[in-house]
């Protein structure tokens, strides 16, 4: 497994090891001891996934307490992660990733960071481990296309939820 820093402090790109032979492949998607050996000592307590179709954009959402480890088990999506900690010198800075079943990348997202993703394939499965139980009332939402943040998305007219289209 390789763990790489990104341009946002605390956000890590994780590339799990893959065993591949004539039968197919095997990927260990999480091993608490191995992650701890790489400095990731987070107690994940909830696993979730969402299934979406092409051009669906979910987010940008986050809260002040939850660590998330996101990955993709089917398809491909474009992921945005934005620092929403107003005490940080990187406040409102963002970065992007392509996460797919092919590249098997994972992204570790700290508390006080928003994340959103756009489905690039016919459908995709967005997997995430969380350090806290989901609590919609504690979440913040940042408008996906707010011009002051200059977030680049590979689409102009995504499929949005009511929550993401009204802010």
How would you describe this protein?
By secondary structure, the chain is mainly β. The chain has one domain (2-166): Jelly Rolls. It has helices at residues 32-37, 162-166, and strands at 2-5, 12-15, 18-21, 24-27, 46-53, 57-62, 68-74, 76-83, 94-100, 106-109, 113-119, 123-130, 140-141. Strands 1-2-10-7-12-5 form a six-stranded antiparallel beta sheet, with no helix packed on it. The chain has a five-stranded antiparallel beta sheet with strand order 9-8-11-6-13, with no helix packed on it. The longest helix has 6 residues, at 32-37.
Outline the fold blueprint.
Elements (H helix, E strand, L loop, with lengths): L1 E4 L6 E4 L2 E4 L2 E4 L4 H6 L8 E8 L3 E6 L5 E7 L1 E8 L10 E7 L5 E4 L3 E7 L3 E8 L9 E2 L20 H5 L1
Antiparallel strand pairs: 1-2, 2-10, 3-4, 5-12, 6-11, 6-13, 7-10, 7-12, 8-9, 8-11
Q: What is the H/E order?
A: EEEEHEEEEEEEEEH
Q: Based on the structure, what is the oligomeric state of the protein chains?
A: single chain
Distance between the termini: 39 Å
Low-confidence stretches: none
From the alpha-carbon coordinates, what is the Rg to the nearest angstrom? 16 Å
Computed structural class = mainly beta
| CATH superfamily heading | Jelly Rolls
Number of helices: 2
Helix residue percentage: under 10%
CATH fold description: Jelly Rolls
Major sheet summary line:
6 strands, antiparallel
Q: How many DSSP E strands?
A: 13
């Amino acid at each position: 497994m390789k763990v790489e820093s990104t341009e946002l402090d605390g956000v890590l790109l994780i590339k799990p090891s893959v065993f591949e032979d004539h039968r197919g492949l095997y990927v260990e998607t999480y091993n608490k001891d191995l992650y701890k050996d790489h400095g990731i000592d987070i107690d994940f307590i909830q696993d979730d996934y969402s299934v979406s179709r092409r051009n669906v954009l979910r987010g940008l959402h986050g809260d002040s307490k939850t660590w998330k480890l996101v990955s993709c088990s089917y398809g491909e999506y474009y992921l945005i992660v934005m620092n929403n900690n107003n005490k940080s010198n990187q406040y409102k800075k963002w970065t992007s990733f392509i996460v797919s079943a092919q590249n098997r990348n994972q992204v570790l997202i700290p508390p006080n960071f928003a994340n959103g993703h756009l489905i690039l394939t016919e459908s995709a499965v967005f997997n995430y481990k969380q350090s806290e139980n989901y609590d919609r009332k504690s979440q913040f939402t940042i408008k996906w296309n707010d011009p002051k943040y200059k977030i680049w998305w590979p689409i102009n007219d995504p499929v949005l939820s009511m929550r993401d289209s009204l802010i």
